[in-house]
Design goal:
The chain is mostly beta strands. It has one domain (3-19, 47-172): Beta Barrel (Lipocalin). It is built from 1 helix and 9 strands. Strands 1, 2, 3, 4, 5, 6, 7, 8 and 9 form a 9-stranded antiparallel beta sheet that branches.
Length: 173
């Protein structure tokens, strides 16, 4: 397996296990979530216990530039956040998010390429609870991402550091 993928998968497994062990004493609350940023849409399964939120998510991004190329990316990640109540119905979140990506680039002229990589970074956000089951929030992250693209015998590595802001809706059962 590609070393670029093993490292973040190992990190995600360790964070998830550590968070699960730390939260074993409290009751768990499960939910469904949806997020959107300027580029990506995601669905998630938030798992809360006490002041800890573990949120596995699946994200998707697609763009088409007419007469040029099509690009799509699928991501599988997890966020681990410490939640802190700052006012009635308002919580702040501090944590991190990481995961793996798979992408496809199809130029109108030339050879298609496929890529895989990983991403991770710190996240800070806030969440407002309308009631005990429904919340809306925003978060901001600094994300480091790296990918390896392959097309026939050609291989290229790339990395980036970017900011991302997302709006999120969550429903807790």
């Amino acid at each position: 397996m590609n070393r670029n993928i093993v490292t973040p998968l190992s990190l995600m497994a360790v964070l998830t296990l550590a968070a699960g062990a730390a939260s074993a004493a409290g009751p768990m609350q499960f939910g469904l979530g949806a997020g959107i940023s300027s580029e990506t849409s995601s669905i998630s399964v938030p798992i809360r216990t006490g002041n800890l939120l573990i949120e596995p998510e699946l994200s998707y991004f697609s763009t088409e530039v007419e007469d040029s190329y099509d690009y799509s990316e699928l991501g599988l990640g997890v966020g681990v956040y410490l939640m802190s109540s700052v006012a009635p119905s308002v919580e702040l979140a501090l944590g991190g998010r990481g995961g793996i990506t798979s992408s496809n680039y199809e130029p109108d002229v030339g050879t298609d390429s496929e890529g895989s990589g990983f991403f991770f970074g710190p996240v800070v956000g806030g969440e407002y609870f309308f009631n005990k089951h429904f919340s809306a929030g925003v978060d901001a992250a600094v994300i480091y991402a790296t990918s390896t693209y392959e097309s026939g015998t050609f291989e290229e590595d790339s990395s980036s550091l970017s900011t991302e802001t997302r709006a999120r809706l969550r429903f807790y059962m």
